[in-house]
Amino acid sequence: MTLKVSRDNVCNTMNGLSSITQKGQVVIPKPIREYLGLKPSDKIYFEVKDDQIIGKAVISIDEAYGMINTGKTYSRKEQKEAIEEETLEKLKRKQDEESKKKSLS
Questions:
Q1: Within a 10 A sphere around the Cβ of 95, how many other Cβ atoms?
Q2: How far apart are CA 9 and CA 1, in angstroms?
């Protein structure tokens, strides 16, 4: 298995070795953390694809606030609800795709 951590879906090759602790924790090597700009308490989303573990840095709602200029004004609550709704829809689509793949197998 390999671990891919990407920034903006751009994967450059970078190597590092880490062990899994008794608690199931893995340290991302410092050069990779620095390259991706990862800091303590940053969130990583993990998924398994084929025989690979893929980790993607996730920004918080607070970090995303104000990144997109649509010309419209939304409250933080409305923004949070829209992000949560889209995230749930994306997860449902992914689960549906996986169910279809399993049924075809």
A1: 10
A2: 19
What's the token pair of residue 1? Answer: 């298995």
The candidate with the shortest Cα–Cα distance to 58, out of 36, 30, 88, 90, is 36
The CA-based angle 82-84-89, given to 5 degrees, is 95
Model confidence over 5-38: pLDDT tens digits? 554 444 456 778 889 999 999 999 888 888 888 8
Q: Whole-angstrom Cα distance, residue 72 to residue 86?
A: 18
* Mean pLDDT confidence for 54-83: 79
Average pLDDT value for the chain:
80
* Helix spans in 1-105 (H): 30-36, 61-64, 76-104
Question: Model-level pTM?
Answer: 0.46
CA distance 105 to 101: 6
CATH fold group of domain 1-58 = Pemi-like Protein 1; Chain: D (2.10.260)
* φ, ψ of residue 14 in degrees (nearest 5): -150, 135
